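ping. complex inputs:
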Amino acid sequence: MDSRTAILSKIKATRDRRDETARRAAVESRLARPVAGLIPARGQLDPEGRIALFLDMIERTGATHERTAGAEDVPALAARYLRERNLPARLKRGTDPRLKAMGFEREAALSLTEGPSDGSDLAAISHADFAIAETGTLMLLSGPDNPVTLTFLPEHHIVVVRAEDVGGDMEAALARLRMLKGKETMPRTVNFVSGPSRSADIEQTILLGAHGPRALHVIVVG
Amino acid sequence: MELTSPAFKANAARALQDAQLQKALGNVEKGFVAKRAAARQALPEFEALRDQGRALKTHVLEHLDLYLEAYEAKVKASGGHVHWAESAEQAREIILDICRKAEAKTVTKGKSMISEEIDLNTFLEENGIEAVETDLGEYIIQLRHEHPSHIIAPAIHLNKEQVEEDFRRVHTHLPDSRDLSEPVALLSEARAVLRQRYFEADVGITGANFLIAETGSSVIVTNEGNGDLTQSLARVHVVVASIEKIVPTLEDCASILRLLARSATGQDMSVYTTFSTGPRRPEDEDGPEAYHVVLIDNGRTAMLGSEFEEMLRCIRCGACMNHCPVYHAVGGHAYGSVYPGPMGAVLTPSLNGINRSGHLPNASTFCGRCESVCPMKIPLPKMMRHWREREFEKNLTPAATRYGLGFWAFFAKRPALYRRAAGLGMRLLSAFGGEKRRLSRLPLAGGWTDFRDMPAPEGETFVAAFNRQRGA
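pong. complex structure:
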């Protein structure tokens, strides 16, 4: 008997065999119609309340943030972020059409490159598809226009999220994921990011910048 | 790893004398306990979420075979491969085979307890493949040739001076004059050294906190981001996971995530929660070319249908050991197995046999703190008691304990005699207690009096007091 059959039949032998049909039906219906469980009240706020909570929560993780009315302000804000931290005016980004439409070419001093990171980029900018107020979390989907290496390799990660994409809870983020990708499809990675990289492995002291970005900067648009 | 659980008593005695270890263990109570309490306090729904989590995992275990089948089909549909391993040995062979086919020389690893359980690193090294741990804590203990002493904070038994010593010993390409006195300097050095390794690795191995049946996704939860670099920069991503990691849907995963980080580190959410599904898509510009999942039984199916089935709800948050007075006193290594603390005291005998790990379920005062903080409401003390019963039935309990229990049972079955003997014993001990009302030596109770005085009994027996008060 192969290992797969051996493991599955060992499990079946201990489960209630008489209910096989009922067991199968229970599994099929649960998978066909995913149901959200208990959702805490914390994130169940009006749109402005959600944005305020999201910014408060992500600030507690050590991230910084700002808000602007229009997407066309983002290039100048990104350039200012680099300047204020005395970083070179260089930025890596994917080919996300939302970022491309922002007019980065207007920032003449900013040198912008596109594509995945090879580890040499100090700073990158990505666009999130959703944000979760309850926990201060960004949702990014990997894909040709959003290479996942931009989320983990640069020292500084700037993430843009639209105000209308700030939801209350993770279940709302998952609903958005299903809407964007279709019920049956997943991108290679769905990355939920709550703050800059950190470690407490040495004497339980929390330090930022373990392997991923040392700094996370969120720009809410709208 | 070699099981040293049979030497628990000697291990524990040594740990209690180890000043470095005792200093490091102070961080457990200070850090984890207070942070979890604050996170729990800040979420009024926490207790209801625990009940929901328990029901959810119970449902999964009742339908485990069917969810595994559904999960497997989804992984295949997304272009991944699923391998099944009944034992640790089989799992190691499967992983080695994947590495060989990828012509791998170097493997990077995200933190994974199941890979510790199957002793993967040693096996890969024996077969000429270098395995590099990338989680900071795991990296440190790998340099020291040690095993994790905690399931989420593997190097919690160490102080920063010890880490500095190891870095100076191993990172010889760096100048001796560098300052490593602060943790942040140690972190930066590890970051720089490991960064190169991610790019050199041919295969990246991670564990999984969850496997989602609905989508065929594996989920890792980290704070450092090392697991993501491990799986995104190597050509091949291998996920190792035990079979009970399954959850039905994305929403079910979200429900349990609310419990995991809060119970572990007191965070609302860990920094990086990543759902990975299959290899890179044809149009993707980064990510692994191949995606493998190795599903490991290694003793889990034998727990199903037994009094230890509920242990399979465990999500490896570490709250039980963070709140355990025995763990606080002796640390994780004393347990002599991969899994320390209360969850280890239940799981280790299931995986390695009670005859070699009988000390572990006995290393508990049954104070119940572990069960009270377990996000999955696993009745850990009850299961430790079941192991003690099994041990007794198998005649593995030490002779002194067996005779002692027999002696006590003789009286316990004869209440009148018991009361008289208890009254007599009490008066005797009271008399020997002298003016200080303390006993510094007692026959058959050296295990207590070698370390502290026994207070001499005073007043009357419980039954006498009970009868008097009821009469009053």
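The domain at 43-298 of chain B is CATH 3.40.50.10420 (Rossmann fold).
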